[in-house]
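#help-structures

NK: newbie question. if I give both the sequence and a SMILES, will the prediction place the ligand too? trying with zinc ion
OV: yes, paste both and it writes out the complex. here, I ran yours:
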Amino acid sequence: MTDLMNIKQSVNETVGNLVRLIQAETVNPPGNELPAILIIKDILEKAGFPPDAFNIVESAPNRVNLVARIKGDGTERPLLLSGHVDVVPVEREYWSHNPFGGEVLDGVVWGRGALDMKGFLAMYLQVFLDLFRQNIPLKRDVVLAAIADEEAGFTHGSKFLVEQHRELVNAEYALTEGGAITYYFGKTKLYTIQVAEKGVCWLRARAHGKPGHASIPHSENPVFTLAQALEKLRQAGHLPVHLSPTFLKMLDVASAQIRSPLGSLTKLLHSPVLMGILIDRMKGDGGNILRALVTNTISPTLLHAGSKVNVIPSVAEADIDCRLVPGQTPEDVKREIHK
Ligand SMILES: [Zn+2]
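OV: that's the protein plus ligand as structure tokens.
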């Protein structure tokens, strides 16, 4: 598609567009996607994109989405390139660079959203622009969607588009964020492709006890009961191992690339028992990521109990965020927790 002469030009243009997108402050909550959407509109217009080939749809003031389309001959169903333009809030005191400055230093672009996911969006936009400029004949439409509200509930973004403008985003395949992170194993670089996402299930653990005055403690304080239950979960370390076919395929393909004796040992990890032993022993971020890939995870996040410091409550609750390996159900994870 693109000859070697202008790949460099495309990269420069991608970086320039990414910098502009980072400079648009689209923090969500509260959510304010309009500035980024106007930048994409401007880029498309300057590239000569006809005004009837893109739509800007608004779900609320400043909460806008842009969907553009390059037509194929219709023999195949569309491909959707989807990227959200909102970003999570920043704690400025922890930043060494202006999070909305879009500085490019030593080949690195700095800013909130550079990874999640204005970087991806700038790349999708570039592919889209290059396809358009080079007038490549396509079998399927290629649809670019710059969407709002991924970080805080989808109401103004993908949910709104699917419910109210489905015809704009209907596609056979979609590419979006996640997965494409470079991993280094010695000198080997691995680029992963994400094909599925863990499911989410929120549970509430509730302990009942006997209320009373805090000045006369008794053994039925539900705060202690809840704490004991949570401590049991902590000590268990992790739930049972589930090795999905996709995970095993990734393991095999990745290990074939790693030229080390360790690479051939990965066949052993097709055994859930051996994988369980490995994740029990692996420390640090690597161990945490591997555990999350092969088990249903549980993270207690919110605690609720009592309303006064001098009163023993009758109920104590913990909200638990669970993430499910593809193929697992909320019932499965509840069963595993009770074991
Ligand atoms: Zn994201």
